[in-house]
Amino acid sequence: MQLIDGKLIAQKINQESLAAVEVLKARGVTPGLAVVLVGEDPASRAYVRSKDKMCRELGMHSVKFEMPAETSQSDLIALVHRLNADPAVHGILVQSPPPAHIDERAVVEAIDPRKDVDGFHPVNVAKLALGDPDGFVPCTPLGCQRLLLESGIETAGANVVVLGRSMIVGKPMALLLMNKGRGGDATVTVAHSRTRNLAEVCRGADILVAAIGRPHFVTESFVREGAVVIDVGINRIEDATSPKGSRLVGDVDFERVAPKCRAITPVPGGVGPMTIAMLMANTITSAQRLG
Ligand code: NDP
Questions:
Q1: Ligand 1 center to 94 CA (angstroms)
Q2: How far is CA 211 from CA 50, 208, 288, in A?
Q3: Total-model pTM
Q4: First to last CA, the chain
Q5: pLDDT tens digits, 73-107
Q6: What is the Å distance from ligand 1's center to 268 Cα?
């Protein structure tokens, strides 16, 4: 069984990013990422901090806006418009989820698609569906595809089951893997909460991508012998033996599933580190395009 080390692969991608930043800087361009957070959600704050830190480590320009929870939608959109016009900013990200009074779609649609490094703008969603490489692909599924590529796992002709159909993970993952070309050309099935005989459907997979947000949901009965399993799930569960009283687990019951697998990602240390590495890579791509 091959353990797919997302931390190590993310480090390799970050090294490539570091080199790409140097080349851009020599041309007088410093890739810049603006991250906007509205409200006090502690998990969102932690994500924003780690994105800011990674930008700095790679020598990129980072701007962070922490706005109070009562910020109006129009003020938030006005900030997005300012960032759209700022030539030092190549990537704009509004941390999800915003407070309930803000329409997240309206905010995403206000972002210039050329700076939408999260790949959530409808123009970028359409480009992914069209197989147009000029768009931006959401960072988590892009990271999953890269894990497969870096681990030498062939997707062409493979039966892939994507468990979950969210716009952040499941749907773009399915599109990426079914598109033509390297890291694609798979035969993709998308499963969700209305899928009949879920375990049986998943057992048909050469490659199973689990993204449902249910701790340890995928057990050995979902996985055929020799399958590759990519676990996107990040779930906090209580654990009295841990100093924090809780720990992070995936959507896959690793202990029970791993012995059957050809390759599998752990949680933590699998998909998680890839997401931020791909965000940096997308921002650098934007800087290369926009100059
Ligand atoms: P969502 O809640 O948006 O989507 C979950 C999907 O799973 C839905 O399509 C839902 O089906 C399906 N689902 C839920 N329960 C079941 C079930 N019992 N059986 C079958 N399908 C089910 O989640 P996200 O896609 O945003 O995230 C999924 C997981 O990935 C979470 O654990 C999240 O924390 C993690 N994540 C990790 C990231 C990383 O960087 N590693 C980044 C983003 C997410 P239906 O549509 O029918 O409701």
A1: 20
A2: 22, 10, 31
A3: 0.98
A4: 44
A5: 999 999 999 999 999 999 999 999 999 999 999 99
A6: 17
Calculate the alpha carbon distances from 25 to 22, 29, 54, 69, 290 in Å.
Answer: 5, 5, 17, 36, 14
Token code pair at residue 250: 């995936």
List, in sequence order, the alpha helices (H) in 151-207.
170-178, 198-203
Residue 236, SS3 per DSSP: strand
Tokens of residue 209, six digits: 């991508």
Residue 185 is which amino acid? D
Residue keyed to tokens 């941390």: 95
CB 136 within 8 A of CB 287: no
- Cβ–Cβ under 8 Å, residues 234 and 211: no
Phi (first) and psi of residue 59, to 5 degrees: 80, 20
Predicted pLDDT at 46? 93
- Assess whether 51 carries a catalytic annotation: yes
Of 5, 12, 64, 95, which one is the catalytic site residue?
95
Active site residue 64: no
255 exposed, middle or buried (CB, 10 Å; 0-12, 13-18, 19+)? exposed
- In the residue annotation, 206 being an active-site residue is answered as no
CA of 231 to the centre of ligand 1 (A): 11
